[in-house]
Amino acid sequence: MTSLTLVPPVDQAQAAKQLPCNIEAEQALLGALLYDNGAYDRCDTLRPEHFYEPFHARMFAAIESAVRKGQLAEPILIADKFANDPAFEELGGLRYLADLVDRAPSSAHARDFARVVSETAKRRELIRISGEIAQRAETPEDDDTAASLIEDAEAELYRLAESGQAAGGVVSFADAITGAVQMAAAAYERDGGLSGTSTGLIDLDRKLGGLHPSDLVILAARPSAGKTALACNIAFHAARNYAYEQMPDGTRRTTAGGQVLFFSLEMSAEQLANRILAEVSGISGDRIRKGEIEAHEFGRYRDAAIEIQEAPLYIDDTGGLQMAKLAARARRQKRMRGLDLIVVDYLQLVTMGGKSENRVQEVSAITMGLKALAKELDVPVLALSQLSRQVEQREDKRPQLSDLRESGSIEQDADMVLFLYREEYYLERSRPEPNTAGYEAWITKMDACRGRADVIIGKQRHGPIGTVTLAFNGEITKFSNLAQDDRYPAARSPYGDA
């Protein structure tokens, strides 16, 4: 029997001495797959890009495509796909495939050979990344700072560690379709039919379908309107309901809720925790801070802390955090513990580092960075944003996209823009004197809107825009589902009109 040889040109043989590769392992794996297509299930994390020999990469892609379609992948059928491939003829054509099968090891060892192929591919990528970074460090371009080089290197290394291959590049339509079908299947199998992470707010989830991986979601409002409270509610609901299933390769797949990283650039971790504990215990956070609680209330507060302390909610309260450090900490979090949702409170407090004379350009760079981070880590990023003062100058105080503060790129880069509007917030600031002409009318308006908040969906790439009304308890800064007759037929609304 003829021995297997690739007959590479001389320059390729020399390159093989410099770049890690294992042609024999690639041949053994392909032979095992051709002999037993079922072996593909034991190496499904392997990709064509992991193969050093280009023809081997194309052949693995052909085998993969056939197996996914439920078709037989054997030498004669695979040979038909490469009838006009010069490399196939150079290697020996059908005889080459037959030799691969004849010399194939047991399919039980397919995973071992796949691991060798993947390992050498990672080493080649490490060499490529280090070479590119070294070249950029030696001859930097105008916008290449040491910090940006470190960030780029870290991003490349993170992606390599996560997927085994470099980021970017072209994705086939077949791979894109596979991802879309998997997302639809996850939504179909999940309670409530959500394809994203649930906000815990039924009507909002119906409009949004949850918070979707790779999306940048902006939640904007005027100061003290309750945007931090709403973000806390969403983050804590995701963390409290986190559930997962163990995969065969030892990794975890989130089935409900999620692990959350909360960047609190304005409030301390203790203040944020106090808000969440107030929500869970039902005790006013203001009364807790002032010590105006009874013994039984403190017991309830302590019990709530014990109950929720294991929730996978991680808080980073570093003030003035730079975008590069924020991204680095998010990557580290996903790598070490897992990550399903990032919350940034709030956008205008993130910096790019160094001196910037143009704040609009800096905010644009931050929103672009957050969107890129959402795509890189494949998690939703919920970023809070301030609204400009021009809202206060209008008679109709309901926010619009043009009210986003400091940069139109916020609207441009975001996949969803949500505005939090509480009419009660504005009415409280226009309270007339008692026993005056407008006081009774003011009381009537306050009664109609008390305990309610509107989330206005100003932009959504995946679905409709519109308004969702929520219940809001200001004492414990908690947003919740507004009681509806069709949802709670036996319950009465606390407001008497829902």
Query: What oligomeric state best describes the polypeptide chains here?
Result: single chain
List SSEs in N-to-C order: HHHHHHHHHHEHEEEHHHEHEHEHEHHEEE
CATH level-four homologous superfamily name of the largest domain: P-loop containing nucleotide triphosphate hydrolases
- The total of helices stands at 19
Would you tell me the structural class of the helices and strands? alpha/beta
General shape: elongated
Mean pLDDT: 79
- Content of β-strand: 5-15%
Low-pLDDT runs: 6-10, 487-498
At the first level of CATH, what is the class of the largest domain?
Answer: Alpha Beta
Number of strands: 11
- The tally of domains stands at 2
Largest sheet data: 9 strands, mixed
Radius of gyration: 28 Å
CATH topology name of the largest domain: Rossmann fold
What does this structure look like?
The protein is of the alpha/beta class and 498 residues long. The chain folds into 2 domains: 154 residues, Orthogonal Bundle (DNAb Helicase, Chain A); 307 residues, Rossmann fold (3-Layer(aba) Sandwich), CATH 3.40.50. The chain contains 19 helices and 11 strands. Strands 5-4-6-7-1-8-9-10-11 form a 9-stranded mixed beta sheet, with helices on both faces. Strands 2-3 form a two-stranded antiparallel ribbon. α2 runs parallel beside α3 and α2 packs across α7. The longest helix has 29 residues. It is elongated.
